[in-house]
Input
Amino acid sequence: MFTGIVTASGRIARLSGDSVRRFEIEAPYDPASIALGASIAHAGVCLTVVDVIGLDEGCRYTVEVSPETLARTTLGDWREGDSVNLERALKVGDELGGHIVQGHVDGAGRVVSADRNDGWLTLRLEAPVALAPFIAEKGSIAVDGVSLTVNAVAGNVFDLMIIPHTAQITSIGTLQPGQRVNLEVDIMARYAARLAETAAQA
Output
C-alpha cells in the first residue's frame, strides 16, 4: 500500500531478460533498509525487490517485471538512464499525505498538453475510455505514482495543476505532449461505481 507521495528519484541502471524483464535500479536508499521481497512503487507500479547491493552512495536493487505488467503500463518504454519516481511501501502509523494507492496500474494515459508558467505546470491527459467513469473533478488520481487532484474532466480527458515543488522533485515536471503515463484511479471511486452497478442490477 502506498500514498502517492514520491520519496526519491531512481535511475534505470540496466535492463535485461525477455519473457521476464529484470530492471536494475539505482536509488538513494540505505541498502540495509531494503529487505529481499520488499515492495517499492516505480512510477506507480508496485514491484518486488529480488536482489540488492550497496553502493558508495545509496544502493542498486533488482526487480522483475512480468509480461502482464509490461502490457498494462509504461514500463516497456523504459530505457537505461531514465529516471523513475520511487515510493517505499506504507508502514502502519505513517502519515497518509496523498490518497490510498495500491500500486496496481489501471492503464496507460497520454499527455495531450503541458503548459508551464512561472514554475506551475498545467497538464491535460487522455485516459483510456474504460477509466473515464472513475475520474471526477476534485477527485484523486495517481499519475506515474504521484497523487494528484483532478481539476476538470471532459469525457476521458482531464486536467491537472501541478505545484512547482512536485514538478521539481518528480518526473511529472518533465512530461511532454505525446508521452504515456501510468494511471491508477482512486480505489474509493472504483468501489463506489461497483456499488452503484450492483444496486442498479438488484
